[in-house]
Specification:
Length: 284
Amino acid sequence: MPARKDPDASASVPSFYGAELRFKREAAGLTLEQLAEGSFRGISFLSQIERGERRMPLDFARHVDQKLGTDGFFERRCEDVAKARQVGHPWYYADIPDMEKQAQTLEEWAPTILPGLLQTRAYFHARIEHGAPETPVEVAEELVQARLARAELWSRAERPSYWVILNESVIRRTPLPPAVMAEQVEYILDIMRSTRSVLQVVPETIPWPPLAHAMAKIMTFADAPPLVYTEGDFAGQIVDYPAHVREYRRRYDLLRAVALPPKASLALLREAVRSLKDEARQQD
């Protein structure tokens, strides 16, 4: 059984909130199972709140206050915690950055864009300009800063093992200037090299790959069940129902099978950089 990992209460407002919840629960002599009993929530969900990874729903905060006799503390503060973790992120994504940090393994696939953890400032800013041109400048900058903050994951000593599958079309077919895209692809290559992560590319010759219309972020944890995050244009969902998680796992494995091997995938990206730089020089 893995050693218990205490939450770092200084890391963020959600981490402080979760650490306080664990302290009060243990002071009351309750296990995770005993505190969750009667709440219609699972012990893994409660554990993730204690680690600062999941948002505390209002009804669950009331349940916790009643069981622990905490005079409404967790109900009063759960909205503050939700706001703190949402800065720069849509509400449905607010839990994910902390989950990424806590994960043991992280596997990603996004069929139409590059995954957020791999995006440069220029790439993400251009996506806002093309996809949501009405976004106020200050809001766009807040979104960009929140996106770049997630990349701090790569400098963490205890970062997750990372495996990403890219669609070749997101490299080849983009409205970005060739010089900007060349910088973006070089950035991905640098991350793969410095973190010893694994990258595969699904070639454009595969017209209907598994998960062709759904992005997937699969996360496993040392002391909690695996989760999947999937997203559309205006909503996202954390999938934790075991049967559904297994199906995403199976589809992701099928995606690996149709992708190029890692060595060939890196060669494709290096060739793309050369081609993009040649195109940029021709435009000068």
